Amino acid sequence: MAFFVSTSLFIFLAFISSSATACDRCVHQSKASFFNKASALESGACGYGSLATSFNSGHLAAAVATIYKDGAGCGACFQIRCKNTKLCSKEGTKVIVTDLNKSNETDFVLSSRAFRGMAVQGKDQQLLKLGLVDVQYKRVPCDYNKSNLAIRVEESSHKPNYLAIKFLYQGGQTEIVAVDVAQVVGSPNWSFMSRNYGAVWDASRVPSGALQFRMVVTAGYDGKYYWAKNVLPADWKNGVIYDSGLQITDIAQEGCSPCDDGTWN
């Protein structure tokens, strides 16, 4: 079967090297605060909704625009530790980005559970009282216990024309930067999908029948195709999560010099 590259995917592949950051795994210095209620992150800009609390035992975070990346950073994982050695552990805590942080004071606003997770045993309440702490952080791979990448059909979808989907359980240290959809049966006529907001992609020209997807996924300097050949059945339903059959495990390349601004030791 011939595999044609749509205009949207071709453009992304052509410019991956210029847009990818070489510093995702470098150590950065900033501050972090926390939300009193987890519901603040459930309704976050990534659009995960109540599913967010099932990610990473509720260790979630809102991240600044440079990390959020207009939604491409949704689902990214970071290891964060506070620099108060009397209250905080050396390991810190791992968080998943589920929202956009619009604050100019901090790079991250954590769920209270994640904020407490930075503390040494018995010091979590003292840490919460501080409210705002100096932190170091670095991007790390996401691990969903070998779960496949999943696609959730959003409630706003309606046949025969409009489809909105959300990607879940995106492993490794990657970003999905382009998506195409086509029918499974016959010669595929690929239609590009646009990022609606956060982790949600949509298309107003959706073929009938069972659907397949292909994505351009970046990891550091590199970008490559992932092709999920038979994902949505012909009778796909809104609100249902479908298994893509793919696992994404790529790790972004190291490239901290000259932008390394800290040491993780």
Automatic annotation (TrEMBL):
Protein name per its UniProtKB record: Expansin-like A2
InterPro entries on file: Expan_Lol_pI (IPR007118), Expansin/allergen_DPBB_dom (IPR007112), Expansin_CBD (IPR007117), Expansin_CBD_sf (IPR036749), LolPI (IPR005795), RlpA-like_DPBB (IPR009009), RlpA-like_sf (IPR036908)
Pfam families in UniProt: DPBB_1 (PF03330), Expansin_C (PF01357)
Cell membrane is among the record's keywords: no
Transmembrane spans: none
Gene Ontology biological process terms, A to Z: anatomical structure morphogenesis
Subcellular location: Secreted
Signal peptide interval: 1-22
Lineage: Eukaryota, Viridiplantae, Streptophyta, Embryophyta, Tracheophyta
All residue ranges annotated as the Expansin-like CBD domain in the record: 161-244
Keywords of this entry: Secreted, Signal
Keyword Signal among UniProt keywords: yes
GO annotations of cellular component type: extracellular region
